[in-house]
Write a structure and sequence with these properties.
Elements: E1 7-8, H1 19-27, H2 43-63, E2 70-73, H3 76-91, E3 97-101, H4 106-117, E4 122-125, H5 135-141, E5 146-150, H6 164-174, E6 177-181, H7 193-196, E7 200-204, E8 215-219, H8 247-283, E9 288-290, E10 301-306, H9 311-317, E11 321-322, H10 338-342, H11 347-351, E12 353-357, H12 364-384, H13 386-396, E13 401-408, E14 413-422, E15 425-434, H14 437-450, H15 463-469, H16 477-495
Parallel strand pairs: 1-11, 3-4, 3-5, 5-6, 6-7
Antiparallel strand pairs: 2-8, 7-8, 9-10, 10-12, 13-14, 14-15
Length: 500
């Protein structure tokens, strides 16, 4: 019998294309549809251009913009780069100072760091513990040579919303261009660029049930001169983004925006209720932190940190769920979330955090299944940790046992062995571990190999041999040294005759 498919809870990373959107895209691909090059003057080109114009109006309507203010790109990452690098290039003769926030997406931070490497002064503002940036901090950071401020509308990991209207107003008073990464906010809350007062807004189709490979940069009509192109070619998109327009992707983007505009109010309420259902189901575990709970957040993104479990072991054990440990664009690094660290979470707690992002096709049954699986895994990992079960080992340890441990929870690897000995021979061995899956597996494997070994020949091999036998990545070899140290501690106690 086949196992059920994992529950998809990673809508903040990407969304499936809505079937209605896919149908619109399909119409543009075959010879009977508007497949032509929109720049061509013949009938096929005119049909394609008309389809692009329709989609441009649909995309603009979603955010309260004019159609001519929409520049199509390959996605929010390109839109962010065009906004940041384009404004920097256009403003270089009168200022180079750029302000952003430490918790921005990498698609904003990386182009900012590129400018910094080329000599531009950058200011990275830190939000408060809730994740919200106080407008007074931005006001204090603005300088006469500030040319751009880039602040996201909603954080991709926590869903925390910024007061974009207040921040943009500060920039408008000083004549500073304000850019906003709206990739996570546009799909979840109604945004109106006029009332917000932003100059530039980035967003992407694949976050709102459209296709990958297409996005937009809103460029306020009066701000066009503040942006220079960063790529060059045929002059498409008002000279800001050259290249033949992908009609089928643009049409899909437009259809997705039109559909989202109709569904968004009710869908926001539904996702908010589902988020509460998730939280109520997991908060009873104790030691669970809802990151960004003190702030206004977009519906459908829940970021939870779990005390007493190692992050990689938690994530890898949740085989029935498709979710993220952070922003999917950067979580492959294996490092603790820089967003959660900036909010004051320590490294261990940041590493044991999960982002549950819900969407159009998420059901209450999906959430109940997720709650059940997370509870089971967290309870099992906590029971395996020396912190939870260690005290009992001292109380119920049988005569003739020796115990040794190494590492600490704060270090990310903590291993404890207990050996039941008879004379100079190990009769049984058991272990506890707060560690990554490879380290836990190796420690448990060693317990099997310790049975029957003598005190003189206690440790079976060396960490490098264990790593090869258990397929442990070379970068984790240092964690196996902790396992070895725990066994050496057992041997020291045994040799000293300190049996219980």
């Amino acid at each position: 019998m086949n196992a059920p498919a994992p529950v998809y809870l990673d809508y903040a990373a990407t969304t499936p294309v809505d079937p209605a959107v896919a149908a619109v895209m399909s119409e543009c691909l075959g010879p009977a549809g508007p497949f032509g090059n929109p720049a061509s003057a013949h009938a096929f080109g005119r049909a394609a251009a008309a389809r692009v114009a329709e989609a441009r109006a649909q995309v603009a309507a979603l955010i309260g913009a004019l159609p001519q203010e929409i520049v199509f790109t390959s996605g929010a990452t390109e839109s962010n780069n065009l906004a940041i690098l384009g404004v920097a290039a256009a403003s270089a003769d009168h200022g180079r100072h750029v302000i952003t926030m430490r918790t921005e997406h990498k698609a904003v931070l990386d182009p900012c760091r590129h400018l910094e490497r080329r000599g531009a002064p950058l200011t990275y503002l830190s939000p408060g513990a809730s994740g919200v940036l106080e407008p007074r901090l931005l006001a204090a950071a603005l300088r006469p040579d500030t040319v751009l401020v880039s602040i996201m509308a909603a954080n991709s990991e926590t869903g925390v919303r910024q007061d974009i209207g207040a921040l943009a107003a500060l920039c408008r008073e000083r004549g500073v261009t304000f850019h906003c990464d709206g990739a996570q906010a546009v799909p979840r809350v109604a945004l109106d660029v006029r009332s917000l007062g932003v100059d530039l807004l980035s967003f992407s189709a694949h976050k709102l049930y459209g296709p990958k490979g297409i996005g937009a940069l809103y460029v306020r009509e009066g701000a066009r001169a503040r942006v220079q192109p960063v790529s060059f070619g045929g002059g498409q998109e008002r000279g800001l983004r050259p290249g033949t327009l992908a009609v089928h992707q643009i049409a899909g983007f437009g259809a997705a925006c039109e559909l989202l505009g109709r569904l968004q109010p009710a869908e926001g309420d539904r996702l908010g209720e589902l988020g509460e259902r998730l939280w109520q189901g997991l908060s009873g575990l104790g030691g669970v932190h809802r990151n960004g709970a003190e702030a206004s957040r977009v519906p459908g993104i829940e970021n939870l940190s779990f005390e007493g479990v190692e992050g990689e072991s938690l994530f890898s054990a949740l085989t029935g769920l498709a979710l993220s440990t952070g922003s999917a664009c950067s979580s492959a690094s294996g490092e603790a979330s820089y967003v959660l660290r900036a909010l004051g979470r320590d490294a261990r707690l940041a590493e044991s955090s999960l982002r549950f992002s819900l969407g159009r096709f998420t059901t209450a049954a999906d959430l109940d299944r997720a709650v059940s699986e997370v509870r089971q895994v967290v309870e099992r990992l906590r029971a395996l940790s020396p912190a939870a079960a260690g005290a009992a080992w001292g109380r119920d340890a049988p005569p003739g046992s020796v115990t040794g441990e190494a590492g600490a929870q704060g270090q990310g690897t903590w291993v404890r062995f207990q050996l039941l000995t008879e004379g100079d021979t190990v009769k049984e061995a058991r272990c506890l571990a707060f560690a990554c899956p490879h380290t836990v597996d190796t420690a448990q494997w060693l317990c099997e190999r310790l049975r029957g070994r003598s005190r003189r020949d206690l440790i079976p091999g060396a960490p490098r041999e264990w790593a090869q036998a258990r397929a442990v990545p070379v970068e984790k070899l240092g964690r196996l040294l902790v396992v070895e140290d725990a066994l050496l501690a057992c041997l020291t106690q045994w040799n000293e005759g300190a049996t219980i």
